[in-house]
Amino acid sequence: MGAIQRDQAHFLLLKIHSLTGLIPIGLFLVFHLAINSLRTVGVFPYQLSIDVINNLPFLIWIEIFVLYIPILFHSVMGFYLTSIAKYNPMRYRYPRNWLYTLQRLSGGIVFVFLVYHMGTTVAPKLWFGYHEFQAAPFLIGVMNEEFQGWTGRIIYLIGIVAATFHFGNGLWGFCISWGLIVGPKAQRNAGIAFMLVGLVLTIMGLATVLEFSLNPVPVAPTKAGGL
Ligand code: HEM
């Protein structure tokens, strides 16, 4: 591969990395935190939302192609970009230098959190074969238990704040990368708006953790049997 072709491939990978952060991963995060926050309204709407997801046809294939492959690509590229990053927040004390460093740090934290989170929810659900209406009682049981101690609460606090920051600040990077906001004033205003998006998502996530912590309610399957 010639130097020009290598530069083009590098450029393309950077664009795909930026795009996958928004679609599908960012969109998933927004929906995921919104659906989980249904738990603050009551356990019944939350259980119904899990029932709907776990009764989708071809669920595992949707998850693999729409979620797991993009997350894996975004993570591998993210670790590569972190390994070649130039850090200088101490030398140049501008907020953007700090945000640049925090974006890479939060990405690493989200990756570790995801391994834990999926390893304690989706992985045992699949391993023990809880499908369709059996999934919700199992998953709600896992969450109830998770938030009865401080370890689980702190792990989720860190995971949620890291993910919502990474997404909010990542939206800014996406707009710069795709040339959507030009000029210092527009970039500053967009930065503030995206941080507010991150803040709203953080509040939704933490409210869910609080509700599970204060009010752990076990549930029976909405519908017994497979019909
Ligand atoms: C309030 C906090 C959260 C709760 C209560 C929660 C709950 C859950 C549950 C119950 C599942 C299993 C869904 C199923 O198999 O039907 C799940 C999966 C998942 N969660 Fe979360 N989650 C939270 C925060 C997060 C955060 C912050 C992220 C992103 C870093 C995240 C990313 C994921 C991913 C990628 C999956 C796998 C989705 C799938 O396989 O369909 N979650 N979560």
UniProtKB/TrEMBL annotation:
Annotated TM spans: 12-38, 58-81, 102-119, 154-180, 192-210
Enzyme class name: oxidoreductase
Keyword field: Membrane, Oxidoreductase, Transmembrane, Transmembrane helix
UniProt EC number: 1.3.5.1
Keyword Plastid tagged: no
UniProt key word DNA-binding: no
InterPro entries: Cytochrome_b-558, SQR/QFR_C/D
Superkingdom of source: Bacteria
GO MF annotation: an example: succinate dehydrogenase (quinone) activity
NCBIfam families, sorted: sdhC_b558_fam
Protein name: Succinate dehydrogenase, cytochrome b558 subunit
Native organism: Nitrospina watsonii
Designated gene of the protein: sdhC
